[in-house]
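Hey,

Quick one before I head out. I ran the complex with magnesium ion overnight. Inputs first:
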Amino acid sequence: MTLQRTLSILKPDATRRNLTGKINAVIETAGLRIVAQKRIWLSLAQAQQFYAVHESRAFFNDLCQSMIAGPIVVQVLEGTDAVSKYRETMGATNPENATAGTIRKEFAESIEANSVHGSDSEENAAIEIAFFFSHIEIVG
Ligand code: ADP
Ligand code: MG
């Protein structure tokens, strides 16, 4: 049980359908605090840099295009075991495999348009948070 921070993104399919408040309610109900948040629109170069770890995957181009199809909301979430807690709250990558009550089960349209991103480790959380936020933008 450790206090952690993780990086969350509400993806373009979520902003397009005006779901940011509904998703934030699920996040807060799970006990995670939104300690930083901003709405931005990524360039293709920025999306490619953020997802560089997936560069060799067949879905890389589609993934980057879907992330620049509209605005996103980037957030820092804080809480006990925030990295794994948010992964549980998001649900499986493919919403068809996600558990009832998870964000992806309730809101995702497909494996591509799956509404949210969450860091997959504490190490990556630190890298991803630093990609979007400076120290003074995070208010715990
Ligand atoms: P997660 O977002 O659950 O951590 P990954 O890191 O494996 O999943 O993949 C990043 C994103 O790429 C996913 O959220 C999803 O939008 C997309 N993606 C993953 N696998 C596929 C796939 N097989 N086909 C299309 N898009 C995919
Ligand atoms: Mg991932």
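The chain has a mean pLDDT of 98.

Talk tomorrow,
K.
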